[in-house]
Design goal:
about 325 residues, alpha+beta, Phosphorylase Kinase, domain 1, Transferase(Phosphotransferase), domain 1, membrane, Tyr_kinase_cat_dom, Tyr_kinase_AS
Length: about 325
């Protein structure tokens, strides 16, 4: 009996120790022992939204470069924290949807950029994610910032598709807002003071980008967003570049470019600087002053370079004061 009792006690102790070890393994990453004033203190260390191992496994499934994966690791968001709503706009390669992002103590209304992954190349997906990685560096009231990136499974394809989470902009893009204020079903007069404020907001945002050595290369009213407080945020950084050496960027491969917003030297030599962004800012101010008209009316895209070389420039809008 004594032997049987001893064996039973030994078995119970072994089970108890095993449970302790399993518990230690389960919570070992979440609790961190520290020494304070000679005493052992156990503090809870909050987990990230994604564990590093899970994040790497998820990003690895996209087949993107190691450099890009490294940049995206700290902005990944759990998919179950994002609820998608109605579609706000749709293009050839993706759409923008309304969404709700669950945070620690609140639910935030957001805009979600998605990709039509089935028709996009890997290079296009990298460009999409590179734009998001670029935006995570920005922190300015007049520059669009990144809230996060997550992956959703495309059931029809069986592999994940990246989505980019951005602040919700109630009034949409500035060009559409200007156009509808003039040509919509219920036209609204925009006073000069408001137009000047739009210009000033963009100037502040572009100054911030310039100070961080970014050139935008695609500044236009359509790429500026208007929030609920009527503040303009510079957005759409798909063509932006960070300058590391010197003060210019030379475009290597030919791609579709918004020629009516591009500086003449960039059209000639494919060289971009902060000064070429200033040219684009001037064209954007013309758009604002005309309340959404297309620059160089009557001039085809293919004719714009010769038109500018002949000394032609945008004409002063009819209701634009000389002081502006």
């Amino acid at each position: 009996m004594a032997v049987a009792g001893a064996v039973s006690i030994a078995v119970l102790m072994a089970v108890y120790v095993a449970k302790l070890r399993r518990k230690e393994t389960r919570f070992g990453e979440a609790f961190e022992p520290m020494m304070e004033s000679g005493e052992l203190v156990v503090r809870y260390r909050a987990r990230r939204t994604y564990s590093r191992r899970t994040t790497e496994a998820t990003l690895n499934s996209l087949g993107i470069s190691d450099e890009l994966k490294q940049k995206l690791q700290d902005v990944m968001v759990d998919r179950h924290k994002l609820t998608l709503g109605k579609t706000l706009g749709e293009g050839e390669f993706g759409s923008v949807m309304e969404g709700l992002l669950t945070q620690e103590e609140s639910v935030l209304k957001v805009a979600v950029k998605t990709m039509k992954i089935a028709i996009c190349t890997r290079s296009e997906m990298e460009d999409f994610l590179r734009e998001a990685a670029c935006m995570k560096e920005f922190d300015h009231a007049n520059v669009m910032r990144l809230l996060g990136v997550c992956l959703q499974t495309v059931e029809s394809e069986g592999y994940p598709s990246p989505v980019v989470i951005l602040p919700y902009m109630k009034h949409g893009d500035l060009h559409s807002y200007l156009l509808y204020s003039r040509l919509g079903d219920c036209p609204v007069y925009l006073p000069s003071q408001m137009l000047v404020k739009f210009m000033t907001d963009i100037a502040r945002g572009m100054e911030y980008l310039s100070n961080k050595n970014f050139i935008h290369r695609d500044l236009a009213a359509r790429n500026c967003m208007l929030n609920e407080n009527m503040n303009v945020c510079v957005a759409d950084f798909g063509l932006s570049k960070k300058i590391y050496n010197g003060d210019y960027y030379r475009q290597g491969r030919i791609s579709k470019m918004p020629v009516k917003w591009i500086a003449i030297e960039s059209l000639a030599d494919r060289v971009y600087t902060t000064k070429s962004d200033v040219w684009s800012f001037g064209v954007t101010m013309w758009e604002i002053a005309t309340r959404g008209q297309t620059p160089y009316p009557g001039v085809e895209n293919s004719e714009i370079y010769d038109y500018l070389r002949q000394g032609n420039r945008l004409k002063q809008p009819p209701d634009c004061l000389d002081s502006m």
